[in-house]
Structures are given as structure tokens and as C-alpha cells.
């Protein structure tokens, strides 16, 4: 199988780092053994863990104030797949890519699928874009898409979503994620109830076109681009719609799509109980939306989310949950951000596996707030880095991926081949 990084380069890197890792891992094993933790079971769970990469996260992001591309960044979906392959070869937990249409349109989907498979990658959920207008459109989504007051525009938005499903089928996707920008900027601009009715009717039409093995994910967001109201603003609206649509419809939690201080881990627990938790878009945020890297601001909150997931799974309350990163990289090399983010997500999951729920339950029954928290903190405070490194080593990936990537000079090499978007002298290279 063709891979982005040669086995020899990976082995050379690992040879240089394995002795240090062995010492750290031994210490980690001793520590966890003293706590009565069975690492073999945890390793098995971690080896099954994967998080999808968003095709749109591979290019440099930006804000409305500007965008600062870097040399060697990908120009099309094929080049983005190459970058995803580099990430997956290094860390081994990102073997699927999520596409966004019409951004990722290609003439030949068979070719794209084969190209992607050649790197050992597959496709995750497909995403529809009804939040901007393209040149060839005869309609406009300025005042909404699936909830627009004009039926012909709603029909266009439905058509675009059905088109996503058809493209997704060609590449082996099994889910459609729908996020709409629909909402208002002025009180009185829209009848809240009627717009929700229009959403449900539009979604029913999309749902009716969903293949039997597929799922549809509803992604909520409280604000932006609409700044007064949003039609699918929170998990309650999302749950209501998913429930109405049927058993193939689920809620998707994008961490950044919540107002500050929202208790997201509690939403996770509720949706798991209601059997409607379908997936995640991971990122972090300080003020709003999803523009910071996963785990960069609040790793403890990320751990608490995985605590709910791990607990729900133990209690057999969890359906299959789809994990994806959804974040914008404005000032970093997206590959580096995605490597670090995927590992932070894996780290939070690993730490949640160190929690002993029997012990926690004992403290909870006694209403012992401090020892309950302390039990979670004990798991959170264990450094699982050697465990994650050892899993990468044993799986043929790289012990220190960021260090390897810096020395690999990937962007420099690609800047000579890929179309230049600007003068190289102004890059971060
Ligand atoms: Mn998202």
C-alpha cells in the first residue's frame, strides 16, 4: 500500500526515541499497577479509537479580517488527502476524512476514492453547505436555506443535501451532517414556530432519501452567522427534530457551538440516555464558535466529556458515536494543529478509561463531593503520554509526531510542487 511517509523514516525516528520511551512507559505501568488499573484492556480500547479529519481544516483558515496562507498548502481535495495521509501515518488515529460539498466536488469520485484508499484512508460523514452562494446559483441563501420562506429556495437546499448523499454513496460515506446557518438578525424578522416547521418538513424530504445503512446528524449552533436567533439553536431543538425524523437521525455536538459556560458534558449524558447522540465535532473555544484547537483551552472539560462517554458505554447506553475534528487554523500549519488536536482528544479519552466507576459510585452514594472530584482528578492528572507513545510505536506510527513532522520539511517540499498562492518569503517557513 502506498503511504505518505516511508516505513524506514518512521523506524529511524523510533529507534532514536524508544529507549527514553521504555523508561517512561515502565514508570507509567508501575504507577497504574499500584492503582489497580489493567492497562491491557485500556490499550485495546485505545487501539480502536479514531477521529476523522475535516477536509476544510487542511487549508489555512482565516477570519473576515484576513487570511494568511502558507507555502505548500493544499489547493484541492487530492492534495488535502495527501496531507491527511501524512497525519495518519504519524499518529495512526485519523484514518478517515470528512468532505464538504460543493467545496470538495470532483469530476470523478471513483478516482478520489481509489486515491484515498491507496493511502489507507476512508471517508467519514459528508457535510452540506447551504450557508453561502456560489456563482452558478440562481437562488440565494441570504435569508435562509432549509427554512427559507420561499419554497423554491428550500427545495434547492434540499436538493443540495440529497446531492451530498449521492456523492457520499460513491465514496463509501455512511452519514450526512446537516448544519444550517438559518436564523435572524432582528426581533420580529421571523416566526420562530413556522421556521422550525419548515425545517422539519425540509429535513423529512432529505431523510426520505437516506440509504438504509446511513445516519443523518443534526448540528446545532446558538448564533452566527445569524446574530439574534438561530433555527436549530441548541440540543433541545436538535433532539426534538431527530426524534421526529426517526431512528436514523441523531444529534451532533460541536463543542464550539455552545454559549460560554454551557455544561456540555451534561448534554452528552442526556443525549446518550435518549439514544440520540450521533457524533462530535471537536475543537476548543474561549469566546465563541469553534476556532481554537481541541484541548488548547480547557482539557479538563474535554476529559469530562469523555468521562460521560466512557460511563455511558459501560452502562450500554451508547450508540455508535462518530468523532471528528472541526476547527479552523488561522496562524499555524494545519497539519501540526491537527496532529496535536487528535492526540489531545485521544489523551482525554485515555484518561477517562482510568476512572474506576465502582469507586466513584461509592463516593457518589455517600454524597462525598471532594472524594468524587478527587477520583476524577486522579485519573485526569495521570500523564498518559507514554501510553499514547507506546501505542503509536506498537502500531508502526511515530513516537514524537510533531518533532518528526518539523524535521520532515513537508511544507518546504510541497511548496516546490504545489501551486503557489503567494510569495514564499512571507510564510512561516
Ligand atoms: Mn461543526
How is this structure best described in words?
This protein is α/β, with parallel strands linked by helices. 47% of the residues lie in helices and 11% in strands. The protein has 15 helices and twelve strands. An eight-stranded parallel beta sheet has the order 1-4-5-6-8-10-11-12. A two-stranded antiparallel ribbon has the order 2-3. β11 (277-282), α9 and β12 (322-325) form a beta-alpha-beta unit. It starts with 6 loop residues before the first helix and ends in a 12-residue tail after the last helix.
- What's the Cα radius of gyration? 22 Å
| Helix vs. strand class | alpha/beta
Number of DSSP-assigned strands: 12
What ligands can be seen in this structure? manganese (II) ion
Separate helix tally: 15
What order do the SSEs take from the amino end to the carboxyl end, as H and E? HHEEEHEHEHEEHEEHEHEHEHHHHHH
User: Span between N and C termini?
Assistant: 31 Å
Largest sheet: 8 strands, parallel
Q: Report strand order across the widest sheet.
A: 1-4-5-6-8-10-11-12
Based on Cα principal axes, name the global outline: globular
Low-confidence spans: pLDDT under 50, at least 5 residues?
Answer: 423-429
Summarize model confidence as the mean pLDDT. 95
Helical amount: 40-55%
* Residue share in β-strands: 5-15%
Amino acid at each position: 500500500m502506498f503511504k505518505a511517509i516511508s516505513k524506514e523514516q518512521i523506524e529511524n525516528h523510533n529507534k532514536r526515541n524508544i529507549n527514553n520511551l521504555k523508561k517512561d512507559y515502565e514508570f507509567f505501568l508501575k504507577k497504574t499497577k499500584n492503582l489497580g488499573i489493567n492497562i491491557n484492556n485500556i490499550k485495546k480500547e485505545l487501539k480502536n479509537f479514531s477521529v476523522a479529519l475535516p477536509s476544510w481544516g487542511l487549508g489555512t483558515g482565516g477570519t473576515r479580517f484576513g487570511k494568511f496562507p502558507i507555502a505548500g498548502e493544499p489547493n484541492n481535495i487530492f492534495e488535502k488527502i495527501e496531507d491527511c495521509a501524512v497525519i495518519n501515518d504519524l499518529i495512526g488515529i485519523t484514518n478517515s476524512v470528512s468532505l464538504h460539498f460543493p467545496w470538495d466536488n470532483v469530476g470523478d469520485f471513483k478516482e478520489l476514492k481509489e486515491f484515498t484508499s491507496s493511502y489507507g484512508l476512508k471517508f467519514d460523514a459528508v457535510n452540506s453547505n447551504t450557508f453561502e452562494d456560489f456563482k452558478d446559483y440562481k437562488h440565494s441563501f441570504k435569508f435562509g436555506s432549509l427554512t427559507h420562506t420561499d419554497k423554491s429556495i428550500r427545495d434547492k437546499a434540499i436538493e443540495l443535501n440529497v446531492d451530498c448523499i449521492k456523492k457520499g454513496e460513491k465514496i463509501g460515506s455512511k452519514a450526512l451532517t446537516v448544519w444550517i446557518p438559518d436564523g435572524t438578525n432582528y426581533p420580529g424578522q421571523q416566526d420562530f414556530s413556522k421556521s422550525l416547521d419548515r425545517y422539519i418538513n425540509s429535513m423529512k424530504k432529505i431523510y426520505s432519501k437516506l440509504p438504509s445503512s446511513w445516519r443523518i446528524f443534526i448540528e446545532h449552533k446558538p448564533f452566527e452567522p445569524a446574530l439574534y436567533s438561530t433555527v436549530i439553536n441548541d440540543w433541545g431543538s436538535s433532539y426534538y427534530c431527530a426524534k421526529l425524523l426517526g431512528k436514523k437521525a441523531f444529534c451532533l455536538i460541536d463543542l464550539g457551538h455552545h454559549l460560554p459556560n454551557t455544561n456540555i458534558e451534561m448534554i452528552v449524558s442526556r443525549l446518550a440516555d435518549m439514544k440520540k447522540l450521533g457524533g462530535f465535532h471537536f475543537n476548543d473555544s474561549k469566546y465563541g464558535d469553534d476556532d481554537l484547537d481541541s484541548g488548547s483551552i480547557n482539557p479538563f472539560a474535554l476529559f469530562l466529556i469523555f468521562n460521560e462517554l466512557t460511563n455511558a458505554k459501560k452502562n450500554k447506553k451508547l450508540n455508535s458515536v462518530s468523532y471528528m475534528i472541526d476547527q479552523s487554523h488561522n496562524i499555524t500549519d494545519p497539519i501540526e494543529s491537527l496532529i496535536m488536536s487528535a492526540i489531545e482528544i485521544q489523551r482525554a479519552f485515555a484518561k477517562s478509561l482510568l476512572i474506576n466507576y465502582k469507586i466513584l459510585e461509592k463516593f457518589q452514594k455517600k454524597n462525598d463531593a471532594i472524594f468524587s472530584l478527587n477520583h476524577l482528578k486522579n485519573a485526569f492528572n495521570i500523564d498518559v503520554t507514554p501510553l499514547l507513545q507506546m501505542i503509536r510505536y506498537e502500531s508502526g506510527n511515530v513516537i514524537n509526531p510533531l518533532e518528526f513532522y518539523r524535521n520532515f520539511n513537508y511544507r518546504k517540499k510541497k511548496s516546490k510542487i504545489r501551486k503557489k498562492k503567494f510569495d514564499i518569503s512571507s510564510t512561516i517557513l
